[in-house]
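In the previous lecture we treated proteins in isolation. Real proteins rarely work alone, and many bind small molecules. This record shows how such a complex is specified: first the sequence, then the SMILES for magnesium ion.
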Amino acid sequence: MLITRVRLKNWRNFRTLDLPLREVTYVLGPNASGKSNLLDVFRFLRDLSKPKGGGLQAAVADRDGISKLRCLHARKDNEVLLDIELSEQPDGPVSWRYVLGFKPEGKGAQRIMVSAERVWHQGQLKLDRPNEADQADPVLLTQTHLEQIQANTKFRDLVDFFGATTYLHLVPQLLKFGDKIGGQRLEDDPFGQGFLERLAKTPDRTRAARLGKINAALQHAVPQFKELRFAKDELGHPHLEALYAHHRPNAGWQSEEQFSDGTLRLLGLLWALLEGNALLLLEEPEISLNDAIVKEIPLIIERIQRDRKTRRQVILSTHSEALLSNPGIDGRGVIVLQSSQEGSQARTLDMAEESALEAGFTVAEVVLPKTRPQTVNQLGLW
Ligand SMILES: Nc1ncnc2c1ncn2[C@@H]1O[C@H](COP(=O)(O)OP(=O)(O)OP(=O)(O)O)[C@@H](O)[C@H]1O
Ligand SMILES: [Mg+2]
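The predicted 3D structure, ligand included, written as tokens:
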């Protein structure tokens, strides 16, 4: 399953938005243009859908309340609305549509109330709220049906899909020293502290198969990289070890503490691609990798998923000129964000840009110059 369209109203810095999404979608835009805010739509739906998510009230509270979440540029109509279409396969017909609207109660406890919740499956309306039960007992509108197991039997596949979304903003130091740093870990581990532990818990055969694929992809992208393996030290702590061709002969295997930051981050991303079937949100995969490797990221993603039965849909945010200079990027999967006084606008490529890509130019050449801040002022520093 994959998300093929997203429409938003009053979501963070987007007053309105209507975008198609592809199996791999690249979200481009300068700082503060709303890339992370766009990814947050899918984290929000995950928070509503996952078993321990805490539902609508918690998901809004986790985002510092409705006044932070709702677009500051909202007009009279102050409802926040998400409208999502999904398909069973790329370019397939719409199989599911989910619509959720909500707003604050406007009095008393200031709870967040569902103003609309609708689900269609194969064009048939499966849920339409507010319904009679909601009218009889308006407190029911403090919860969505995504968060209620007994209420969502008719669209459990959709709930499971939303709930299985992964968000990754990997921090190399936490990947390396997660164990030693300890401290608080967010449940979904977006920063990668639990990566090695997860690796350790994966059944041997699955782990070996995944590492084999990562091996092949890395050999292609990282010069001198020879082999990757999983091992445990005397204390039973899990480690990743790599062998590089350029080290002294018999220099032996390096453990993850000696890997370059970028290599480790890349490993984490690649593992995530193989770890599940649902949506994967990647923040700036280029961080701490050198340009020669970054340029290969689109290909590595393709290669690593190549013979999977169900590939993960990937939405990634990026600033990277190198990544976008890969000639293999499908222009239909590119989303451009631009800030304005009225919040951010999001768009797909226009015809002129598409034909420039067909003529052999890269996304970096055609689109990036338009997303660069014209002056430093736009960074809001002065
Ligand atoms: N409710 C809201 N209404 C309007 N603007 C908002 C709202 N919430 C956040 N913003 C604005 O959105 C911007 C941040 O967007 P976001 O973090 O998504 O940017 P980004 O494109 O991911 O940037 P970076 O490249 O730095 O990661 C900030 O300027 C913030 O003020
Ligand atoms: Mg961001």
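Summary for your notes: The chain has a mean pLDDT of 88. DSSP finds 15 helices and 15 strands in the chain.
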